[in-house]
Amino acid sequence: MAKTPTKAAAPKAETAKKVAAPKAAAKPNALQQPLKPSPELAAIVGDKPLARGEVVSKVWEHIKKHNLQNPENKREIVADEKLKKVFGKDKCSMFEMNKHLAAHLKA
């Protein structure tokens, strides 16, 4: 039987830690870019620029707080007065909602 060569333990040398150079500020992607809401949407989410994800979260908070989901079909949102101004109609599916929100956001 041939012996397999074993690696000798290398003496521990103090290694210098690499310090990462500061990176240039990364450009936010489309979902992270702050957008200004229209006055109609600002009534729900506030008038400060927000990322799309934050806008959607705040709209969902409003929907949950005011119990605006159709109890028989949870995918359907029954708009109150504020949401009617954003959606342009009385009911909207949760998938269609983002299309309506995009129309009320500007860079």
UniProtKB/TrEMBL annotation:
Q: Where is this region: Disordered?
A: 1-37
Stored Pfam families: SWIB
Give every DM2 domain span: 30-107
The family database entries (Gene3D superfamilies) matched by this protein are listed as: SWIB/MDM2 domain (1.10.245.10)
List the biased-composition ranges (Low complexity): 1-30
Which InterPro entries does the record cross-reference, listed alphabetically? SWIB_domain, SWIB_MDM2_dom_sf, SWIB_MDM2_domain
Note the PANTHER family from the entry.
Answer: SWI/SNF-RELATED MATRIX-ASSOCIATED ACTIN-DEPENDENT REGULATOR OF CHROMATIN SUBFAMILY D (PTHR13844)
| Name of protein | DM2 domain-containing protein
Supply the source organism's classification: Bacteria, Pseudomonadati, Pseudomonadota, Alphaproteobacteria, Hyphomicrobiales
